[in-house]
TrEMBL record:
Peptidase M50 domain ranges (all copies): 14-68
Principal location: membrane
Record's protein name: RIP metalloprotease RseP
One Pfam family linked to the record: Peptidase_M50
Biological process according to GO: proteolysis
Organism name: Thermus scotoductus
Cofactor(s) recorded in Swiss-Prot or TrEMBL: Zn(2+)
Similarity field: Belongs to the peptidase M50B family.
Subcellular location: Membrane
């Protein structure tokens, strides 16, 4: 029962971070800002891939999220 609660908490943490960072990602894309990376969770990184010039990373613990962009003037 405790394990199920811990797993549910981890899942909800990831879900909250993904939804939040997805908003940043979509806003950047909508206004033509190049996205360099999307990071969900914290190190150690358990999954890493690149698609269309954007690096994606998934960390072991749902501690934070970030969307790295390249602002051009």
């Amino acid at each position: 029962m405790i394990l199920a609660g811990v797993l549910a908490l981890l899942f909800l943490g990831y879900l909250a971070i993904v939804v939040h960072e997805l908003g940043h990602y979509l806003a950047y894309r909508r206004y033509g800002v190049p996205v360099e990376g999307v990071y969900i969770g914290g190190p150690p990184w358990i999954l890493r891939w690149r698609r269309g010039g954007t690096e994606y990373r998934l960390g072991l613990l749902p501690l934070f999220g970030a969307v790295a962009s390249k602002w051009e003037e």
